[in-house]
Every structure is written in C-alpha cells, then in structure tokens.
Amino acid sequence: WPALAGDIEAILSLKHERNAVILAHNYQTPEIFHTVADIVGDSLALAREAATTDADIIVVAGVHFMAETAKLLNPNKTVLIPDSKAGCSLAESITAEDVRKLRAQHPGVPVVTYVNTSAAVKAESDVCCTSGNAKKVIESLGVSKVIMLPDEFLAQNTAAQIPGVEIITWAGHCEVHERFTAEDIRSVRESYPDVVVLVHPEAPPEVVAEADFAGSTAGMIDFVGQKRPGRVALVTECSMSDNVAVEYPEVEFVRPCNLCPHMKRITLPNIRKALELRQHEVLIDPTLAARARIAVERMLAVR
Ligand code: 13P
Ligand code: SF4
C-alpha cells in the first residue's frame, strides 16, 4: 500500500504540473480507475472525451488502439500510452491490405470498422463504430449491405438487431470474450437462479442468447445503475465487476469473467513513468491519420 500511495501521489502532482489528463477504460484495475483517472468509460466515451479535452498531454490507460484514436482526434497534443505493447487480439486480426482486398471483392459496399483496429485499418474504412453505437452507425448509412470488421461476433450480434441489413463479417475475435460459452451462463444461473446476466457483444451469439442484456461496458454499468439487480453477472473482463462493485455495494457481483492481458499491462508505476519521462508517445503518419480521422469523426457525428 505505501508504494501504491506513493505512485498515486506522484501521478496526481505530475498531472497538475504537466496539464495532463488520464483517460481510463472500464477494464483498468480499481487502483487506477478509482484514484488517478480523470475520465473513465467505454471506448466510445473515451473517444468523445479525447475529442474535447483541453489538456496538453493525454495519457491513455487502456490499449494501443484507444491511444491511437485519441491521437487521431488530437494531432497537436502529446498522447502517451504507459506500455506500448498493450495490444488487442481484434486489432491484430486484420491489416489495411485485408480491407483493400475485401473492398475489391464487394465493390461499393461500405466498410464499418470497429475502433479496435489500427489507424492504418481505420484509414481504409468509411466509418468507425464501437460496441456502444454499432447498430446506430450502420442504420445511419441507410444501406442494405455493409462490411463490418473485424469482430465476427459483434457483427453477428449486431446483424441480429438489424434484420434488413446484410452484414459481411471478418473472422477476428476478442481473446477475452470468445472464451465464454453458453454453458458458462447456464451454470451461473443454476448456482444463482435470481442472477441477472449481462454480456458484452464481443461474446459469441449463443452466449448473448443466454443473457438478459448485451451491451458495451458503459451499457452494462448503466443497466446496473438503473435496474439495481440484487445479483448480477457481468460476463466480460474481470475488472469491470471490481470497479462497478465499489459504486453499488448493495449489488452482489458473481463471475464468470476473463482477464485481458493487454489491459493489465497498464499499472500505476508505468503511468507514473509515462508522465515523468513523457513516454511512450503515440505518433501516426499525418497523411494516414488524416484518412483515419475521417472514419472516426463520422462515427462521432452519429448520435
Ligand atoms: P467497450 O468498452 O467499448 O464496450 O469495449 C470493450 C473492449 O473490449 C475494449 O477493448
Ligand atoms: Fe482487445 Fe478483448 Fe482485450 Fe478489449 S478485452 S482490448 S477487445 S483483447
């Protein structure tokens, strides 16, 4: 604890000295989420906040694609990620060349790209989406066919909500959510018959089918805040339950959950180091960034 307190104190004063802001994803550990973070949220909320901050330095306590999105929206600011190896299995699953090939196979079909991708992939896309706005973004296009990349399960789960639109998918998966099974949910319900089950839409459709609600991490938090279930299972990354449980002590949180090894690369000591040494700065080629920014800004314009 004294070491943690020392890091927290140092981070708070470095933020003040350097006019820095810390954006933290909902999957960050409670000692980051509840102490040093200025803004917490899902991928959509972090992108929206990144677009409006007046800080000089943005530290992203999250994974690399989130830091890249922040940089796309703030080309003149310093964006830091405390561990540059904090990746994502979805972002790794597809390249810009893959998107160009898909476009050639499906001429004229718009490409909707999950934010969990590199800037190079975003640059080949028409519009981005997150798990919190995928349906709205696709509906905003007013077309009957889209390519949705790279998360196959998010695409299938979104397609189920928009029956009039054909969605061409890519076989990318989140290594955290693909491991959940329908049997996991059934066994939680057997142990706790009154449990309310919330699932992230990166999980396979048969898992979503067993749930009471599927939504982004922010969607799950809102659900708990509004409905106050007596007992809830957040079928997603483990830190979600830890973070939300602090806010709702009267709600009992049961698992299953899986850890994201990429999110867990971010720690208080490396956030402190990032601020002390201004490392690791996220840089994107300006020509590529200009194209990728269009896809992100189109997404942010969808309300
Ligand atoms: P959201 O927070 O946007 O729901 O995304 C979950 C996720 O897996 C981010 O890496
Ligand atoms: Fe990527 Fe899944 Fe980890 Fe999110 S939870 S960063 S989608 S691997």
Descriptive keywords:
binds 1,3-dihydroxyacetonephosphate, single chain, five-stranded parallel β-sheet, Rossmann fold, 303 residues, cytoplasm, pyridine nucleotide biosynthesis, alpha/beta, 3 domains, binds iron/sulfur cluster, four-stranded parallel β-sheet
CATH topology of the largest domain, what is it called?
Rossmann fold
Estimated helix fraction: 40-55%
Largest sheet: 5 strands, parallel
Counting copies of identical and different chains, the oligomeric state is single chain
Radius of gyration: 19 Å
Question: Strand percentage, roughly?
Answer: 15-25%
The number of domains is: 3
| Average residue-wise pLDDT | 97
The assigned CATH architecture of the largest domain is 3-Layer(aba) Sandwich
- What is the total tally of β strands? 13
Distance between the termini: 43 Å
According to CATH, the homologous superfamily of the largest domain is: NadA-like
Detailed description of the structure:
Pfam families: NadA (PF02445). InterPro entries: NadA (IPR003473), NadA_sf (IPR036094), Quinolinate_synth_type2 (IPR023066). [4Fe-4S] cluster binds at residues 88, 174, 260. Its cofactor is [4Fe-4S] cluster. It is found in: Cytoplasm. This protein is of the alpha/beta class. The chain has 3 domains: 2-87 and 264-283, Rossmann fold; 90-173 and 287-301, NadA-like (Rossmann fold, 3-Layer(aba) Sandwich); 182-259, 3-Layer(aba) Sandwich (Rossmann fold), CATH 3.40.50. 45% of the residues lie in helices and 17% in strands. It contains 15 helices and 13 strands. The protein has helices spanning 2-18, 30-33, 43-52, 64-73, 89-92, 96-105, 119-123, 134-141, 152-159, 182-191, 205-208, 217-227, 238-247, 268-277, 286-301; strands spanning 20-25, 39-41, 57-61, 78-80, 111-114, 127-129, 145-149, 166-168, 196-199, 213-214, 231-237, 252-254, 257-258. Strands 9, 10, 11, 12 and 13 form a 5-stranded parallel sheet that branches. Strand 5, helix 7 and strand 6 (127-129) form a beta-alpha-beta unit. Helix 1 packs parallel to helix 14 (268-277). The chain is globular, with a radius of gyration of 19 Å.
